[in-house]
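User: Please predict the structure of the protein below. I'd like the answer in structure-token form so I can feed it into my own downstream comparison script.

Assistant: Understood. Taking the following sequence of 379 residues as input:
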Amino acid sequence: MTIQTSFYFSAREEEVDDVKRMDAYKPGGYHPLGYGSSSTVWLANDDAANRFVALKIVAADRTENNGEPALLKWLHTKPLDHMGASHVIQVHDYFQIQGPNGTHQVIVMDVLGSFHPLRTDTNILKQQSRSVCYQLLSGLAYLQQEKVVHSDLHFGNTGFKTPDRYTDSDERMLSFPIITAVVPRDHSEQSDSPPKYIVSAHPITAEIMFERFVDKPNVQLSAEIMGFWNGALPSLDKGPVPETSSVARAPELTFNKLSHGQVQEWGVSSDVWLMAFTIYEIGFAAEMFPDGACHDARLIYETMKLVGPLPERWKPYWDPKPFEDSNDPDAAWRKIRDAYQLGVENIDALLDLLRVMLRWDTAERPTAADLLKYPWFAT
């Protein structure tokens, strides 16, 4: 973390490296601990079980409508004999705490390592890409069996199981966090809402797990799906359209937005679309769409390149004519093949898998259970 020589974070600044914006620590916002996108997360020691766990402390204004703990608790009351059950993050407990910024849901979960350092700094993820993707698809098959919609399934919402205990040397490194005091410039504005000091997010994966995987080909990754804040139980009505990563967003969600709710086609098969983007990123160590594809028009344009012309039923909500010249999916996939064929094993089987997952019509997308039988996983 960058050393703050003034020991002060301005409330108007954006996030500083791995530290949250200070203006997010306010009533309805973050509890003054940790780091995360809609929550703050801490590594904690469970003395009773003698293991490390992750404490996810949800922002106060999201606690009331946060169905993640209830969904995961409900899911793990179901039979766990499905092979994919072990590839969905485990929730060990949940409770609420009262802080200066409101009431916060606390979820006690498995500690997962991020795939990002393993994708960029080692070959371990590349070497085990098919195994990792198979495990994640197994987890999705389990969710689909129970009719659970994740709705925000992307590379950042997957990870790998870390050991329940770290070595003595690991624990010594974790015992010396980097902290920076928070002192307001105007002492008349003192408040309990911000933390008294900032704790830098510890790069557990990058510094600890990295060493465990370098030059150790026998170490096997165990992948899990996480991030169920937008998840939906099968017993609930669809309700509001879920938020999801804009670049990986399934087209039925984009057209729900463009049609002002007229297109209502999202469901469990939307997760198959999202999983295709995740598999692509794991298999090719790159994102499927280029930067800037988060805007609706560009997103649809990039999708048409790979999938083909829009369905007629969606055309009233968007004019595809300026992009009709891009409708040569075979050429687009050949371009991908040419770019990666020297670095990706069995690339043709992988591309066939991705193409069958990326279908406009949700009814044409195979289930996750069917996808597990595709040749890429057998080669």
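That's the full token string. The chain has 14 helices and nine strands.
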